[in-house]
Amino acid sequence: MEIQYVIINFLILAAILVVFGRKTVISIFKNRYDKLNRDLTEAEEILASSSPVLIDEEVAAPEISDDFEVEQARAAAEAKISQLKSFEERECREIHRGMIEDARKELFEILKKNTAELFSKEPYLSRMRALESSIVDNILSQIKLTSGDMSYLKHSDVLYVTLTSAHPLPKELVEKIDEATTELLNTVNGKTSLWVLEDPALIGGLKLRIGDTVYDGTVVEEFYHFNRRLNREPIFDSDASDSLLSEFMDKAENYQPEIYTYQLGRVMTVSDGICWMDGLADIMYGEVIEFECGERGMVLDIQQNRIGCVIFGKYENIESGSRVRRIGRIATVPVGDCLLGRIVDARGNAIDGEGYLPFKERRPIEFKAPAILERAPVDSPLHTGIKAIDALVPIGKGQRELIIGDRQTGKTAIAIDTIINQKGKGTVCIYVAIGQKETLIAEIREKLKAHGALEYTTIISAPASESAALQYIAPFAGAAMAEHFMYSGRDVLIVYDDLSKHAVAYRELSLLLHRPSGREAYPGDIFYLHSRLLERAAHLSSELGGGSITALPIVETLAGDISAYIPTNVISITDGQIFLDSELFNEGQRPAVNVGLSVSRVGGAAQSKLMKQVSGNLRARLAQYRELADFMQFGSDIDDETKKTLASGRMLMEALKQARYNPIPDYLQAVLIFAVSEGYCACLDPNEMAKFERELYAYIENDCKELSEKLKAAKKMDEQTKSELKAALGEFAARA
Ligand code: ATP
Ligand code: MG
Fold it and tell me: What are the residues whose beta carbon lies below 5 Å from ligand 2 (ion)?
């Protein structure tokens, strides 16, 4: 009986345990299982983040066909190249740009795939494997710790070293690398942790990454450099394409590994055209970097634990966590005569549908301005062909003259007229459009073309639709293009239209980069930015070829307020300003130059003696007229003397009016001003001034040929010429 009780008790106990304990037991196991899983994923994440080389598993090893030959690879590539050539030779290459880019990519893939096949077969495979030891020796002879590694070691005592190879490496080689890197780190009391990875996508060879620096001796790296060249050189030039192809096939057949050294970083976040990265320990301000997707950017901010950069192209394809590569140089643009007559974007790519730019040289967009001893004083005039400017605010070659005024006051018109007036004078012109409407840029191109001015002009277009980063670098790109001409002894006129929009683009970048904002929310270094840009305009000394850059920056004001931040900045940087008054503009006085507020601080020395003689007291007379005219609004009782002053002032103002696209030669301007100030048109109706002017020019040019030749050649008007001119004007006035 007792045994039965024991058994029943035991069964009841067991049943209770099963009913109530099961859940607890399961939950204990489940917790343990979850924890294990968590640890595992965490470990995987750490492995992924500390392993500096991403193994792209999707890129499978290429398929190997048995009957593959070198000649076959060459034939496949040649077929692709001829297709590419036929695309590029067509007239409107721009339209085919997408096709060309695709064909280039295909060509590159064909070459890459064929070479991969080649290297997977005997005897190439054994040859490649035999090279591994020499690659290792070569890499080990180059490794060193950079200053970035040293600063990293201050915070951490382990520096990660990753060895990645296409094929499994012999044990001795791995040990050799381990020893060498440990020894390198020992010199600075640091430790290493060596990761050994295998990645068939490398095709052949191996690479070693120490900290952020990669020593790369892989076939894929060789491809990368080949691809960069492929994209740089137009294929339609048959010599270039043949030499590229044979060079590449040569490389494939007699592969000799080269070690490329570069630094890598990693994208942390991307937004609004700004990217934050880590790594790239030795990067410098202004350097160009390349993202995995091929887009490029420029470093604009360096902080202790992150680096900020602007992205030039599309940033949609940049992924957080992807690799960033240091290019090792600052941004450059193509320069040279091939740019004349073209429209390019801020990076120097042609965007006018006229095909590739056959450029030979590039220049950095940031360059040190010429030093004092390298400069010569401004001494020769740069004629604008606009009476109000050449007579009152003359501009000299190498000068920086600001054009400032409210919106729609004819600022751009003055710059374009000045460009048109350079025809046949040997001056190269560069028009940088920053934040303008694309229709306006197209219109300017058409106007320049119609007046025969496009052939010596380059238009750099960074329209409002372009990213702030490109608007920011556009004027610097223009300055680089101008410098090329200046240093080869030529004269350049560069127009920055306009710097207020440039300042806004830079403010946008700075705010996105979390820089503290200063006055009017502009960053503190905006003054330095503009002075650095404008200081590059200069007249070089004769030892340096005597070339010059004349800069015409344009600034827009709000309600004529020239005391705002950007206007005062640029006024203080430049050598004078042409102030355009919206009131004058609306009164019909065009160009609306406000004589009182416009100055040219150095141009006087460059003004021709002839013009100086005739326009000596012009400024004072105009000032007197404006003052009297303002005063006269209050009363009507005026004496004869005042009436006379007012009439002649009115005449002078009329004489300074000028239509667009109508530049007037210097000597004719002098004749007109002389005629007006000497009173030859005193009895004329002011409204007939335009007709008088037209007829006077025709008379001087056609009926007084000898005198006009004399005036054209004369630097200064002597007494005899003066009396001849007076006689001619007397006769003309009598006729009219
Ligand atoms: P924005 O602020 O939009 O850049 P802007 O100050 O550059 O304007 P423009 O575009 O050069 O001004 O000119 C504004 C208008 O004035 C244009 O329609 C132009 O044709 C006209 N204009 C400019 N100069 C003259 C002139 N000398 N004679 C007649 N019209 C002119
Ligand atoms: Mg304008």
Answer: 412
